[in-house]
Specification:
Blueprint (H helix, E strand, L loop, with lengths): L12 E4 L7 H4 L6 E7 L6 H16 L8 E6 L3 E7 L6 H7 L7 H20 L2 E2 L8 E3 L5 E3 L6 E2 L18 H4 L6 H18 L9 H10 L10 H10 L10 H5 L5 H6 L10
Helix pairs in contact: 4-6, 6-8
């Protein structure tokens, strides 16, 4: 089996291009190492499945940001569809947190990484794109330790006043409105998932935990979560502003980054330094 590059969701396996028999002319287009996401039997897939893959490609083409994995091209042949993208070898944020001292990150390290994630999400939302599966495993690092958001398999291009219907995401990161099977605001759903990401970075675990999915979902719908007494007031307020049960009361990505009514949050996200592997 080919070595996996990352869990990109969907049904595609992603491997370094050097491990896959794709045309040299395509793999050389970017001039940099690339990974390839392989969709076996693409041409024989049903219409709905093809539409999901095509939507993912459309989203990746629309995005161009230093904290988002770069799209590098596609190749469609009889046995498979190959989607090329930037190859990243710095590991996932999940691995970084798990292997860090005490299994969690310091506020300084978390702040610098989280700011990059927020900038990536701001780029998406400004282009009417919702991710819908933000999680530690879908955030990778390059060789310098800079963040790259990946996996747009559940993403969608929506109008800012449009509602989403598809129930998708990863259970521990899903907001209550999706669990209730309601139409929902995809942008607000991303903010909830961002809150879970930040919480996990700072605590080394999820804000909501249960014995099985039913118990987990009940905890999420209740909305209560513990906060470490060692966190600064600004970090606690930021988490509470994202992990708010009512979507309309949740912070937007603009408020998290720079809104004048959220100066304490902007202060927490200030600074240009970033973590880099030693």
């Amino acid at each position: 089996m080919h070595p996996r590059y990352g869990d990109f969701g969907g049904k595609g396996n992603t491997v370094p291009a050097s491990h896959c028999a794709i045309p040299d002319r395509l793999s050389q287009k970017s001039g940099n190492p690339v990974a390839v996401k392989i969709y076996e039997g693409f041409r024989s897939m049903n219409k709905d499945r093809k539409a999901v893959i095509v939507r993912e490609i459309r989203v990746m083409r629309r995005l161009s940001h230093e904290s988002i994995v770069k799209y590098a091209g596609i190749y469609n042949e009889a046995k498979a569809l190959y989607v090329l993208m930037q190859f990243l070898n710095g590991g996932s944020l999940h691995t970084l947190v798990k292997n860090h001292e005490h299994g969690k990150l310091s506020e300084e390290t978390a702040r610098n990484l989280f700011k990059q994630i927020c900038n990536a999400v701001n780029h998406m939302h400004a282009r009417s794109i919702v991710h819908r599966d933000l999680k530690l495993e879908n955030i990778l690092l390059d060789s310098t330790g800079r963040i790259k958001v990946i996996d747009f398999g559940f993403s969608s291009i929506v109008k800012h006043d449009a509602r989403c219907r598809m129930r998708c995401g990863t259970p521990s990161y899903m907001p209550p409105e999706i669990l209730l099977k309601k139409e929902y605001d995809g942008f607000a759903a991303d903010i909830w998932s961002l809150g879970v990401v930040l919480y996990a970075m700072l605590h080394g675990g999820y804000p909501f935990r249960g014995n099985g999915l039913k118990d987990l979902y009940a905890k999420i719908l209740q909305g209560d979560f513990p906060l470490s007494m060692h966190l600064s007031d600004a970090a606690q307020q930021l988490l509470c502003g994202m992990l708010t049960l009512q979507p309309v009361d949740r912070l937007t990505i603009e408020e998290i980054l720079c809104h004048p009514c959220a100066l304490y949050r902007a202060k927490w996200l200030s600074g240009d330094s970033f973590w880099a592997p030693g």
